[in-house]
Amino acid sequence: MSETTDITTADVCAAAIADAFKDDGEIFASPMGMLPMLGVRLAKLTSNPDLVISDGEALFLAGVPPLFAKADKVEGWIPFRKVFDVVAYGKRHVMMGATQIDRHGNQNISAIGDFAQPKRQLLGSRGAPGNTVNNRTSYWVPRHSPRVFVEAVDIVSGVGPSRAAAAGAARFNDIHRVVSNLGVLDVNGPERTLRLLSVHPGVTVDQVREASGCEIHVDGADSDVPETRVPTTEEQLVIREVLDPKGLRFKEVPRPEVAQ
């Protein structure tokens, strides 16, 4: 980010995540991770007040508390067994992390290496298959790198559009956005592949390419790729004074002066 502004990359990412949820209307938002939680709550307080949010465990929230603060207004209860009903029903937008994402929008959170003898065990597929064939799904990548953006994931956990179509499961498959610390992407490139929608302030298209281990499609010339918008003054106040006064977001996307 420019030294002439105090808007940080973390703030831009939060606004980009909020934008991913702004047109969802009344839907259950399921953010997984700190920045996704911040972005969803920012959307709830600004662009989409109809979003239904939870505490990440078992409570639907009427209010919008700061990150990791105890909810003071509760409007419903969703025990774990009921989560699967919501997943199957489909009125849900989940934002997950990804250890790997390939150019076809498939996600891996299971393991690194060959399936029969992986080099590294990760979380396991968990809810990724069900999420991606039933609900709108987005991904958050705090460190855009060739190890994350790969030609083909080692193991498919979350299903991309081409694989979903081949399996006859494309009806509700909706890979909506991929937000990283460098830019915003979707899977509407040729043959439903990764496409670069915007680069964050201070980032170039070439930098995104260099930080990717697969081809990233660009519509038109590189100069046609817009810059990701910065948060409005209202959004900055909400981020800094209401939702994250402790600056927890910088644990995922450090300030430029402390970035490694």
Describe this structure as you would to a colleague.
It is a single chain. The protein has one domain: 3-Layer(aba) Sandwich (Glutaconate Coenzyme A-transferase). 43% of the residues are buried. The chain is built from seven helices and 14 strands. The model has no long low-confidence stretch (mean pLDDT 92). The two termini are 14 Å apart. A six-stranded mixed beta sheet has the order 1-5-10-12-13-14, sandwiched between helices. Strands 2-3-4 form a three-stranded antiparallel beta sheet. A three-stranded mixed beta sheet has the order 7-6-11, with no helix packed on it. It has 260 residues and is α/β, with parallel strands linked by helices. A hairpin with a 2-residue loop joins strand 12 (174-180) and strand 13 (183-186). The chain has helices at residues 9-21, 34-45, 80-89, 128-134, 161-166, 205-210, 233-243; strands at residues 28-31, 53-54, 59-61, 74-77, 92-97, 100-102, 107-108, 111-112, 120-121, 136-141, 149-150, 174-180, 183-186, 195-199.
Which descriptors apply to this entry?
single chain, 260 residues, alpha/beta, Glutaconate Coenzyme A-transferase, 6-stranded mixed β-sheet, 3-stranded antiparallel β-sheet, globular
